[in-house]
Specification:
CATH class of the largest domain: Mainly Alpha
GO molecular function, one term: peroxiredoxin activity
Helix content: over 70%
Shape: globular
Protein name: Gamma-carboxymuconolactone decarboxylase subunit-like protein
InterPro entries: 4CMD/NDH-1_regulator (IPR052512), AhpD-like (IPR029032), CMD-like (IPR003779)
Largest sheet: none
Pfam families: CMD (PF02627)
Distance between the termini: 26 Å
Length: 108
C-alpha cells in the first residue's frame, strides 16, 4: 500500500483547497493506489519520464525522490534518462542527470 500523500494539503491546502484535495485524494489516493494495474515503481518510472520530457524539473526532482523510495535504482534511472535523451532532448537529459546525481549519486 502506498504512503498517504499530503503534499497538496501541506503546500496548498489553505490557498487552493480543492486542488490540494484532488492531488492528495484522487491523483495519489486513487490513481497511484491502483497497484493491481501498475506498481508504484512502474508509475514512478512513467512519471519521471513524462516530467523529464516536459522539462518540469522541480516536479521531476520530487518524483525522483519518490521513485527512489518506490525501488527505482540508480542504474534504472540512468538508463531512463539516457534513453529519453534521444526523444526528449539532450539539454533536458543534462539537466535531469544533475538531479539524478543529487538523488541517486551515492547508490550503486
Amino acid at each position: 500500500m502506498a504512503k498517504k500523500q499530503t503534499a497538496g494539503r501541506d503546500q496548498l491546502g489553505d490557498f487552493a483547497p480543492q486542488f490540494a484535495a484532488l492531488n492528495d485524494d484522487v491523483l495519489f489516493g486513487e490513481v497511484w493506489a491502483k497497484e493491481d494495474e501498475l506498481s508504484a515503481r512502474d508509475r514512478s518510472l512513467i512519471t519521471c519520464a513524462a516530467l523529464m520530457a516536459q522539462g518540469l524539473f522541480p516536479q521531476l526532482e520530487a518524483h525522483m525522490r519518490i521513485a527512489k523510495q518506490n525501488g527505482v535504482t540508480r542504474k534504472e534511472m540512468v538508463a531512463l534518462i539516457t534513453h529519453l535523451s534521444f526523444y526528449a532532448g539532450w539539454p533536458k537529459a543534462w539537466s535531469t542527470f544533475g538531479l539524478a546525481k543529487d538523488i541517486f549519486g551515492e547508490d550503486q
